[in-house]
Amino acid sequence: MDASVDYLKHAKDAIKTEQHALDLLIEQLDERFVTACHLIENCQGRVVVTGMGKSGLIGRKIAATFASTGTPSFFMHPGEAGHGDLGMLVKGDVLIGISNSGESDEIRTLLPVVKKLGIPLISISRDKRGILPRSADVALTLGASEEACPLGLAPTSSTTATLALGDALAVALVHSKHFTSEDFALSHPAGALGRKLLTQVKDLMHVNNLPTIDEHSTLNEALFSMTGGRLGMTVITNANNQVVGVFTDGDLRRSLARQLGLDTPISQVMSTNPKSVNPDMRASDALTLMNEQKINQLLIINDDKTLAGILTLHELLHAGVN
């Protein structure tokens, strides 16, 4: 380890250099960017991103960002494309080619076929001088920024600017498509946001062997129903199977404190206005309600007032709803 190396200084200098590259990128944005947005927005197929080396790594991220924000997209390796994968391209697609120099041999090989297929081409490169931007329908440029690498060789500032430009395209399209958090959740069902926005009460509620008794039952029958259901409660229904009340462990404690007999009509000790929600409610909203009301169970009621299920706090937490 070289004790004379000022790591913090070099780190800050690198970040400042990349920051300058982003400032330079902002200056490059003009009507070409708008045209590129329109091309992608009106695309009837997929946005296919290609690039070699570090440009390819950035291209994968750009394609992933497009795909997760409502623009169908995937990455195509230019080397593999020259050996058959070019068949991934179909009429209606838009191709984004990334090469800082604009002279990638692998992409150059693809250009005649792309033109023959009539695939619109958007290029991302340092300037307009390379074969790639000259062949593109829209040539987006990054500007001739200095690489943060002290040798001026490792792609650093240029890849940062490329990634930022890809993000800018995706974000602009999020606005134009009026893409919502609900739309985002559809492509992220395994993530926390997906669980929050997609999971409904009906996905988690208990529906089998629900503890219920009719409104003419006694406290004794309520106890048997509660202990058999293992949910800490029983639901009271009328002759039409509509919910008229609930009897919980809290109601039981109050009944015992009053020293009521087991033959006491359940109608005298049940709670007549239990908290309930619709099966289509978001599970996250149900959790909020349960926390606000300080309850551990929630009745799920259909529009006709019949019991659809019972949701417990345990099920919500077990499913990772928050």
From TrEMBL:
Coiled coil: none annotated. It catalyses: D-arabinose 5-phosphate = D-ribulose 5-phosphate. One of its GO terms (molecular function) is metal ion binding. NCBIfam families: kpsF. Belongs to the SIS family. GutQ/KpsF subfamily. Its EC number is 5.3.1.13. Residues 36-179 form the SIS domain. Residues 205-264, 270-322 form the CBS domain. This is Arabinose 5-phosphate isomerase. PANTHER family: ARABINOSE 5-PHOSPHATE ISOMERASE KDSD, PTHR42745. The record marks 54, 106, 147, 188 as: Catalytically relevant. It is an enzyme of class 5 (isomerase). It holds the Pfam family SIS. GO terms for biological process: carbohydrate derivative metabolic process; carbohydrate metabolic process. Keywords: CBS domain, Isomerase, Metal-binding, Repeat, Zinc. InterPro entries: CBS_dom, CBS_dom_sf, GutQ/KpsF_isomerases, KdsD/KpsF-type, SIS_dom, SIS_dom_sf, SIS_Kpsf. The gene is kdsD. Zn(2+) binds at residue 77. It comes from Faucicola osloensis. SUPFAM superfamilies: SIS domain (SSF53697).
